[in-house]
Write a structure and sequence with these properties.
The structure is a homodimer of 350-residue chains. Chain A has 350 residues and is an alpha+beta fold. In chain A, 42% of the residues lie in helices and 24% in strands. In chain A, a hairpin with a 2-residue loop joins strand 3 and strand 4.
């Protein structure tokens, strides 16, 4: 979105396209009128004089000669410039604006022919959790997937396998996916691109379970990931970020002697946090995380990367202890992922 | 990090470099021994047989002929392949592994000469908040910055301006930065790349203030951003993600009649959440957010994007109401940024 005089990414893109296609930059009067109309509304909304917007409007309405205006998102246009056998589509950078204009781009004659050539190959996805990448790689090799169109990617304890229908065809890909899945049934958690937070929310919703979180080292990351999903409020009632010991004790009711005897980073504190969250937030399932994200905070016997997880549900508890190598961001991200998977198994398997 | 048989990004990169530089792929026995040693430790830690790791080790030790091994991060090597006047450096993709190996790369003879040629231009940064992009663009133009090496980028209500020392030289850039800053003194919040969460934590720390959050629609995002900063625990004691009304009432003490009369998304609820968090978490400053992130949840007079913010400190309160266009992710991100800026001004200006 560019409303300014300074060069923005949009301006630079339009200039580059003009140069690359050998066109002059011209002022499109009809486009100007459209953008002006919207800018006047925005100016009113912001309580600013329209004159401040005028130079930005002129800039947005300056396009390579012969460009077709496909549509507007806010004040940013989507343009098409044809150049020999090529067709250049310029879109505003912000994902929301780009996505809003995409359907209009698809209406442009010939564009579908071009896009069809760039169609992504159909594929099967397998998502594993809690198994080393090397074991998944071994399963791929045993299934005859070596050298085939199979990619494997480790992401925060999850192993993502994508099997593409390459030269060998769809039947081979399906057979391969089946064989790999069969080899590691205990670790396979999805055959779609659903994230673990989506799966947790869906599993809880299907069972009428409400969920709460109690986070120390992850600092709100688990709650943030859950609430990023539209409709999370049907399942997730809230959480406590209990960073200081006083908050663990005061808000979650972790007994002072547990904190004193075992420390804030301990299996006992994780358990008390989860049970406290469950009782005080009035839910069926609660998950708690406490650990040392670093770089400071390590003590004798409690190194950076040590994380305790605890989940409690109507039919029992599950806990885990992690020893995560890496920096603060990695430790927090992996601890959050592990907590969500602990929740998932508690809800779906008990 | 590749420990597998399936093709990973590392494998693909190494293969591509071999092909591009016209080298054969060869098995490096010395490298194999190094990686094997580390993999045996990892296997022990994971309680898996080393044999599962062996094929991965062989793969990691397979490199373009004549490649120099610069170092290892985990089991992933950094390699240098020379090709005529070019020098190709391959590094593992995960940022942590890449960063760990970078110092070793800098020790390679001639590499500094190559990097010096790619040195980024020195620049001044100006960070504004709470002013339209068009006003900042107008200030840039008035200062004579149009056409100069000035970029402007709007990011969640923040306007980031970078002034590069281009052809006009360092004195011109400094003069330009000064003039732009002078034009909008009330909106300038940083002349460094510090994020607002870093500034909030530093301002609180300097004043001996402790901080808490109370979040509804942002779902933990503010707490997450604060706790992503190492040392946050010196200032931030914790927060409550109060998604359901029961949690707003039970944990934060929002009066039932406030929720009933004004609704969960209201200035009154935001105020009660902030005051509740301040009292119950025992801090000097608390900030609260409640709003409608969408896509559902809109009611008559309360559209998606309506967000109420409230911050309370020892010397008074500040509040704001936002009307954020955009999708769920944008609304949450902008609401969190606005809440952090509200906190910043409360702490630094009162």
């Amino acid at each position: 979105m560019s409303g300014g005089l300074g060069p923005t990414h949009d301006d630079i893109t339009v200039e580059m396209v003009a140069r690359a296609t050998g066109r002059e930059l011209v002022h499109d009067v009809a486009l100007h009128r459209q953008i002006e109309q919207r800018s006047r509304v925005a100016a009113g909304r912001l309580g600013r004089p329209y004159s401040e917007f005028e130079p930005g409007v002129t800039k947005q309405a300056t396009v390579p000669e012969g460009a077709t205006v496909v549509g507007l998102s806010g004040t940013a246009p989507a343009l098409i410039v044809e150049c020999g056998a090529c067709m250049v589509v310029t879109l505003p950078g912000p994902p929301r604006e780009l996505q809003a204009l995409w359907p209009a781009v698809l209406e442009v004659p010939d564009i579908r022919v071009i896009l069809d050539r760039a169609h992504p190959a159909p594929r099967h996805v397998l998502r594993f959790y809690g198994v080393p990448e090397s074991s998944v790689a071994a399963a791929i090799a045993a299934a005859g997937g070596e050298g085939a169109d199979v990619t494997i990617c480790a992401r925060d304890f999850e192993i993502h396998v994508d099997i593409f229908e390459g030269d060998a065809g769809p039947r081979h890909a399906a057979r391969l996916a089946h064989a790999i899945a069969q080899a590691l049934p205990d670790y396979l958690y999805a055959t779609t691109e659903s994230t673990v937070e989506e799966l947790v929310l869906a599993s809880c919703a299907a069972r009428g379970i409400r969920l709460a979180t109690a986070e120390s080292c992850t600092g709100g990351l688990i709650a943030e990931r859950l609430t990023a999903i539209p409709g999370a409020s049907e399942v997730f009632v809230g959480g406590v970020v209990a960073y200081a010991d006083d908050v663990k004790a005061g808000i979650l009711g972790v007994p002072a002697d547990v904190l004193r005897t075992h420390g804030a980073v301990s299996a006992e504190t994780a358990l008390a946090m989860a049970h406290g969250a469950r009782a005080r937030l009035g839910v069926e399932v609660a998950v708690a995380v406490t650990g040392i994200a670093g770089p400071g905070g390590a003590t004798d016997g409690k190194p950076v990367g040590l994380v305790f997880l605890h989940a409690v549900g109507p039919r029992g508890d599950r806990s885990a202890v992690l020893d995560v190598p890496g920096d603060r961001e990695t430790i927090r991200r992996r601890a959050a992922t592990a907590a969500l998977h602990l929740c998932r198994t508690l809800v779906t398997e008990s």
